[in-house]
Every structure is written in C-alpha cells, then in structure tokens.
Amino acid sequence: MTFAGAIIAVLCALIVLVAAMRARQAVRHDPHARRGSAPGRGYHVIDASYHSGGGGGGQSGQFRVPRDPQEYARLFIPKDKKT
Length: 83
Hints:
The chain is α+β, with helices and mostly antiparallel strands and about 80 residues long. It folds into 2 domains: about 1-30; about 40-75, no CATH class. Helices cover about 40% and strands about 10% of the residues. The protein is built from 2 helices and 2 strands, in the order αββα. The protein has a two-stranded antiparallel sheet. The protein is elongated, with a radius of gyration of 23 Å. It starts with a helix and ends in a 9-residue tail after the last helix.
C-alpha cells in the first residue's frame, strides 16, 4: 500500500467513525421525544415545491393531510370497499 492509499484508507475510516458516532448521538439524544403532531381537527398543509435551479424548471404543489388519525386511515381504503 502506498502512502496516498494509506491516507485515503484512514480518511475513509474517520468518515465512517464520525457518521457512526453521530448516528448514535441522534438515537440516544432524547429517546422519549415525541415525533409527529398531535391529533385534532382540520388539516396539515404540506408544501411540496421543487425547483431545479436555473431558468424555469421545477414544480410546486400543496397537499392537505387530515389531523385526525381515523380520517387519515380512511384515505387508504379503496373506493369500492367503502360502505
């Protein structure tokens, strides 16, 4: 192994080590932290805009997602199975 190869191997090992340490920190930071949002009435509005940069490329749109978990679950039932 050449000197340059050894440096590359050490740098790759350091990158993997830092990534693993960061992942462990993220998991252990606050394991009881609640994720998501509280259920309720109304809708969440999600902005799904994409701009490719440059002149004129991209798409934009918004999605409304119900805050009520039961109403959200009903969205996944096929129309021919609904009563």
